[in-house]
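Troubleshooting log. The previous structure file for this entry was overwritten by mistake, so regenerating from the original sequence record. Sequence copied from the archived sheet and checked twice against the printout by T.R.
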Amino acid sequence: MTETAIMDAGAPQHHVMVLPFPAQGHVIPLMELSHRLADCGFKIDFVNTEFNHDRILKSMQNKGPIPEGIRMLSIPDGMDPADDHTDIGKLVGGLPAAMFSPLEEIIKIKKIKWVIADVSMSWALQLANTVGVRIALFSTYSASVFALRMKLPKLIEDGVIDESGNVKMHKTIQLSPPIDSTEIPWVSLGSTAERRRANILKVINTNQLMELAEAVICNTFREVEPEALALLPNALPIGPLVAPMSKLTGNFWSEDQTCLTWLDKQAPGTVIYVAFGSSTVFDATKFQELADGLVLSGRPFLWVVRPNFTQEIKEEWFNQFKQRVAGKGLVVTWAPQQRVLSHRAVACFMTHCGWNSTIEGVLHGVPFLCCPYFSDQFCNQSYVCNVWKTGLKLCANEQGVVTKEEIKDKVAQLLGAEDIKARAIMWKNKARASIGEGGSSHQNLLKLVKLLREG
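Regenerated output below.
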């Protein structure tokens, strides 16, 4: 535990610890929630692993001080410095042993009464028994996937999948949205059967702890997921969460602000925004087909290619590609996504369908081109294409590659679909109404604030 993790023993009355799972898509929405709570007068201790803490501070260079009301703390993740900290299986296995005792110490010293824990860190629910803290869970995925998580033991009992994530029965799971058994999130989480089994057993075991949570905070809103939220009686949907444009966002990479100036020069409703989150990895074939497809579309494009997006493309080829498309396309390593999605020049969002990206696209009324990679992203795609009908699916060929011709055709189809654009605007209006004064999410935020102030 770092020295700063045990400072400020005289904690203020309304003091909340926020504990995200150490992955980009988990840190960002919990940071957004922290800003909301800080604005309501709470003092926030935001606890990252040391590895991610350092990345966030580095990405903040030249951005000014950390906002008042939020203190960034760090705890070791139990991995050696030379280990691959993106190895989720190994990371998950070591987190409880590495973090539990330091968390207990911080809570005792600071007299913290509430912890908001990422549902993927639900082992932290045991803190309720060991140090008497009250705990709310935060779902970084949709209410539908949370409900599916609670049904996982029944899916195994019914023989739909086994404990190693092997699909034993091809059927449609009747939730909203409906999801094929081959696309159940835990089927694709883990490179081996042993890892999938370990992940699934962890989910089942931590499900039994859920009754210790006094609320489940969801980055969604009632109108967009009514059926799923009806299955979660203690859910508090307070989304879509919006990142303050001038404040700490929790990004692991520095945002390239020059892309906003580039967007300013583009005609309204013309740019394809392409971003596949923090975990998606493309091989050389998929990467080159995507690059060629963007060129073939004939549209200007903004493409986010983070440093570890692919390891198979030669730097010389990629530099030549960027020179070839200069003026028509822009490639950046990381972008201020919500500012991009709200920009008048953006016509559509080509995405992996991570829940953060999905709910942000809904908030800004942007049609989707869906290309899920793993986990809950297939469920989110089903929402977009089958329920909300605000986007189209990019279909892979028999080799699992989305071809350049498929990209060209779907871009043309999407941007010519006035009905899809109209529905995207409809959901944008509903999302904004939900977080506005008197909206459903705004009312739930007030309920959360009242609950946390009970101490």
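The first helix runs from residue 24 to 39. Archived copy saved in two places this time.
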